[in-house]
Write a structure and sequence with these properties.
The chain contains five helices and four strands. With 149 residues, it is of the alpha+beta class. It has a single domain, classed as VSR Endonuclease (Endonuclease, Chain A, 3-Layer(aba) Sandwich), CATH 3.40.960.10. β3, α3 and β4 form a beta-alpha-beta unit. The longest helix is centred in the middle third of the chain and has 24 residues.
Length: 149
């Protein structure tokens, strides 16, 4: 199927797509901040530069766009009908890179939470709440250990 946009229109469209500080990332960061959680964004020293990282708790949060990260089974993920070979290879590479960075973070002892764009849009905040619970348990065990000394 031929693209219905001109090359200039398509270029303009694609130039507006952000790699970081996306609306879903900002929503997750706002939610964490409202719960009193401090974090760092796009930490270059960690594999895959996770969107949100808390080194103290060895916690990484990835906020993934369903299309760009190949969210299987999601209505927002489908390979475009034009330039199929390019998109198939590109998205496969993105998924492979995600797996690789996930494994590298795990080898460093990090717990990783992946939050999908479709969950944020639908109001499903269960993964964010799991991350907050993880931090709360970590804080509680640290407090109890300090009291026992």
């Amino acid at each position: 199927m031929a693209d219905i946009k001109t090359k200039a229109e398509r270029s303009e469209n694609m130039s507006r797509i952000r790699g970081k500080n996306t609306r879903p990332e900002i929503m997750v960061r706002t939610y964490l901040t409202k719960h009193g959680i401090r974090y760092r964004c796009n930490v270059k020293s960690l594999p895959g530069k996770p969107d949100i990282a808390i080194k103290k708790y060895k916690l990484a949060i990835k906020v993934n766009g369903c299309f760009w990260h190949g969210h299987e089974g999601c209505k927002d993920f489908r390979i475009p009908k034009s330039n199929v070979e390019f998109w198939t290879n590109k998205l496969r590479g993105d998924i492979d890179r995600d797996r690789s960075s996930h494994s590298a973070l795990e080898q460093l002892g990090y717990t990783i939470f992946t939050i999908w764009e479709c969950d944020i849009k639908s109001g499903n905040l269960s993964e964010i709440d799991k991350a907050i619970g993880f931090i709360s348990r970590f804080k509680l065990s640290s407090t109890q250990a300090a009291e026992n000394q």
